[in-house]
Design brief:
Blueprint lengths: L2 E4 L7 E2 L20 E3 L4 E9 L2 E8 L4 E7 L6 E3 H4 L5 E12 L5 E14 L2 E11 L10 E2 L1 H4 L3 E5 L4 E5 L12 E3 L2 E2 L4 E7 L3 E8 L6 E4 H8 L6 E8 L4 E15 L2 E10 L6 E3 H4 L4 E5 L4 E4 L7
Parallel strand pairs: 6-11, 7-10, 17-22, 18-21
Antiparallel strand pairs: 1-2, 1-8, 3-10, 4-5, 4-13, 5-6, 5-9, 8-9, 9-10, 12-13, 12-23, 14-24, 15-16, 16-17, 18-22, 19-20, 20-21, 23-24
């Protein structure tokens, strides 16, 4: 689990979900620093490119607007490396907070929390943004992750056709929203949850995670009943990376029809013995023109139906 804890305070503080870590969000007697948007009403656009590790964007840190490359992840806190946090003057080490976490492969890690004075996204800026310091990091992860702490401050549109992200303080600012339909979901303190139907009359609740580069991923024990009577499964070996380590895993995969809110879609379903969460990831949503995460009104929109209706 990931936890932001006030030094000297024995109880839990801020617990935050991310792609490969089991965690949740709770309130804290001494709250974490609050993020402020400047201006309060904003509408900005950012180009992104999809890399092997996810959606990469350019952000600008501090008053001097130092250029950094970070991945977008709605299912993760913002985090970065010592190489960035210790050399960039826009960061200051928090005297009040630290974090602790257990990664998906069972490793326990903990560290310091740094506060960035300003994170600029296009023409919008956000002040007092917490970043978790990671000791180990995959070298392909750029300068870190821009996570839920900022993204939950507005409405996020990810336009896969044009590789363009819109971030706005109001759903009314989102172009094309009238063309989109609501994808049934629940916004909780932990995540955005979606009920998904699988073969063999199985229904599971998945967490929407644009930081996960799969269609659907789940633990092996939950995958096996879904694989039953599906002869089209395949196996592969891949590297499963967390901020604690990288390990080789044995994956099982099937491609099958799933259902969400009465509509059917085709999706790849992956599993291994390391992952501990049930996730609906970036690759699933790339079949749509765009997806909108409306954190202000707790709604998810997709721009067009999938392969079946």
């Amino acid at each position: 689990m990931i936890a932001l804890a006030k030094k000297g305070f024995s109880g839990p503080c801020l617990l935050v979900y991310w792609c490969i870590i089991i965690a949740c969000i709770t309130s804290c007697t001494s709250p974490a620093p609050g993020i402020t948007a400047v201006p309060l009403h904003f509408n900005t656009e950012l180009r992104f490119q999809i890399e092997k590790k996810g959606m990469l964007v350019v952000v600008w840190l501090g008053a001097g607007k130092v250029k950094r490359f970070m991945y977008l992840d709605n299912h993760s806190p913002s985090w970065s490396t010592k190489a960035v946090l210790h050399t960039d003057n826009s960061f200051s080490k928090s005297a009040a907070f630290t974090y602790r976490t257990q990664t998906a492969d069972g490793r326990s890690i903990k560290g310091n929390v740094y506060i960035c004075d300003t994170v600029s996204l296009g023409n919008a800026a956000f002040t007092q943004v917490p970043f978790y310091e990671m000791d180990y990091i995959d070298r392909e992860m750029g300068d870190g992750v821009l996570g839920i702490d900022i993204l939950s401050k507005g409405v996020v549109k990810v336009d896969f056709r044009n590789n363009l992200m819109t971030f706005a303080s109001s759903i009314d600012s989102i172009k094309g929203i009238g063309e989109a339909s609501i994808l049934p979901s629940r916004f909780t303190e932990k995540s955005i949850d979606i009920d998904v139907g699988f073969r063999n009359d199985i229904t599971k609740t998945l967490s929407l995670d644009l930081g996960c580069n799969e269609d659907i991923m789940m633990p092996a024990d939950e995958f096996l009943p879904i694989k039953k009577n599906n002869s089209g499964y395949r196996e592969d070996v891949a590297v499963f990376s967390t901020p604690g380590s990288s390990v080789k895993v044995h994956n099982l995969r099937v491609r099958d029809t799933i259902s969400v809110g009465g509509r059917s879609f085709i999706a790849g379903i992956a599993s291994n013995n390391v992952v501990k969460e049930k996730l609906m990831g970036l690759n699933f949503f790339r079949q749509f023109d765009f997806i909108v995460l409306d954190y202000l009104n707790s709604r998810v929109y997709i721009a067009k139906p999938g392969l079946y209706q």
